[in-house]
Structures are given as structure tokens and as C-alpha cells.
Amino acid sequence: xxxxxxxxxxxxxxxxxxxxxxxxxxxxxxxxxxxxxxxxxxxxxxxxxxxxxxxxxxxxxxxxxxxxxxxxxxxxxxxxxxxxxxxxxxxxxxxxxxxxxxxxxxxxxxxxxxxxxxxxxxxxxxxxxxxxxxxxxxxxxxxxxxxxxxxxxxxxxxxxxxxxxxxxxxxxxxxxxxxxxxxxxxxxxxxxxxxxxxxxxxxxx
Length: 205
Description:
- The protein has eight helices and seven strands.
- The protein is of the alpha/beta class.
- The protein has two domains: 2-130, NAD(P)-binding Rossmann-like Domain (Rossmann fold, 3-Layer(aba) Sandwich), CATH 3.40.50.720; 133-199.
- Helix 1 (11-20) links the parallel strand 1 and strand 2.
């Protein structure tokens, strides 16, 4: 099961992608509130509803729920894809997911991070990795413009997935080898890559 907070450009695509891979999305929300259906939401019907109403609130095939309640639902995957600082010291100990995928920028406060790091039953995919897709594809756009050679959507998606999968594998490996949290491992891998790039490049005007 999956729960997605935020149903904008990131959250809506995350929900649809999770459903496509077999997850049952039981709750989503936006700035106005959330909706919940333990049997799973009909995301195609929800897409049509949101296109007309501009909100998920009022979707007839679900019951209303607040953003605060949504974060505490029992689920396999929790995707905070809305604003920053949604998981705080007050609710970090009450979250009931197995995977926390940080699609938003900074959805977890530093205080909450300390609490979550003491909960080994929750696997965290930190924002620096989880929402890196936009930055990577922006880089692809720059590369294509630079060489006036353009790729199709399928090729771009394939390249994106390969980069993310490689990064994920490296970060998980460092986390386990050094026995450090995923966030620290992600930052460490990033800093190491920058260091190596600067060393190879040398002085640059």
C-alpha cells in the first residue's frame, strides 16, 4: 500500500507510477485536504475529478482525511511530496510506514531525522536522491541543446533510471558498509563525486 502527501506535478505522477508497478494507493492529499480509501483509490477517476475540481477534496469514492492524519496511516510506502518540514519531532515517532520516500524538498526536519534514524524498521530514501530526477533531466536538456542532438522520451527515461539506480546502489552500499543513515550516505557520495570531478578538472577559469 502507498500514501502520497501532495498531488501536484510530483505527487500525482508518483501515485500513478506506484499504481503502475502494483502498489495500492490508499490515500492522497493536496493543500486543501486529503482523501482515503482502504480498498485503494481509482486514480484514473481521481485524475478526471482533479482536472475538473482542481482538488482531490470531495472525491466521491473516498472519505475525507487531514494531511496530519494521512502521514500517520499504516502503509508500506509513504511519499511526502508536498511542502518541507511535514515530518517533525511531534509525529516522527508515530509514522507507520516501511519505506519513506522523500519526494518533496526537506520534508523531514533535523529533529525528526534523529528520531527516524532510531527506527530501523523504516527505510528512508532521502530527498537528495528521491527527487533528483528533475535536476538530472534538466542536465539532459542542457546536454542536448549544447550538441544539437535530441533524444526521445523513452531514451531519456532509460538514461534517468540508469543514473538513479546506480546512485541508489552506491548510497545503499555506503550506508551499510559505514553503518550510517541513508541521508548521510547520500551526502557523502555526492561530496565524493564533486571532489573527484574537481580533482580531474583542475583549475577552471
